[in-house]
Amino acid sequence: MNNGAKKIVLVGLSNAVARLASQLEPGRDHLLSLAFHSVAGESSEKDSSVLPALALRPDNYRTILEHFLEKKYTFVSSGDICSGLPRGRRYAHVTFDDGYYNNVDILSLLEEYDIPAEIFVTTSNIRKNQKYWWDVVYVQMRRVGKNDSEIADMIANLKRLSYQKIEEHLSQIFGKNAFVPVSDQDRPLTPSELRSLAKERLISIGNHTRDHMLLAGCSAQVVEEQITTAQEEIKEMTGKMPVIFAYPNGSYSDTVIQVLDQLGFELGFSSDLRVNHLSRDVEGKNRLALGRFSFFSTFDLLTQCANFRLASISPIVLAKRAQRAFARSY
Q: Is this prediction's pTM over 0.85?
């Protein structure tokens, strides 16, 4: 079966699960955490400066938030989770990774629905006003005519390198100016903007390492350096020391969890595609490896929402899990 046929089958099965989800609600006592990155402009046209898979328009976010509100999910903050969530309800949680300036464009929607959100920032990009490296790859590869598959392969291969090696490699190929942002869409927050954002009633700032380093294969010393340096820089920029953490690319290990625990973090968010059960996952050290769901740009949003609610039988969730397990084996 070729890739086109596989996709047709996957979409068909996912639609069937979505129809099932309209009749079969999952149990209560769980937390469903949603991972976002970038807020695209209102235009339906793709922005040429940001990796499209990471960007959703404000109307896309409205669709997602309204879906979970209609399904009687209560949106909670990291503080609510740390304090303990009362049993007998379903909870949803909104997070944004990296620290794009365009995240400020979601504030009015969060205010409209009174929904809290966590923003996990990579501090070196903010301090240096530097474009995120995956956006560099996307822009430069598109410029020379590469297709989406070729771009995805290059990003996947670069993830195996340290951040320093990635930056050196891309600078050699495309020049250092490739890391200079071109607009408000692809740039990170400035320190002063981060400080203002941290004062917003519905926003909490979390740690996403200094360099967006994938931590699973790192020594405890490197892990601690990446996290503590970011902690100090976030404290310097916002006046607050985070107690929440999101693993870059969802990459973690027992060593990373141990370091987080020793440093006093209360919550850690991975990219494991699973619902968090209050009695099992949102307690003890399990709180340092909570699952989250990211949306795929190639699937209908409401279908994905329904599939995330029934993650244990969702074809798109199971396929993505298998894809990640295969990637980790190499």
A: yes
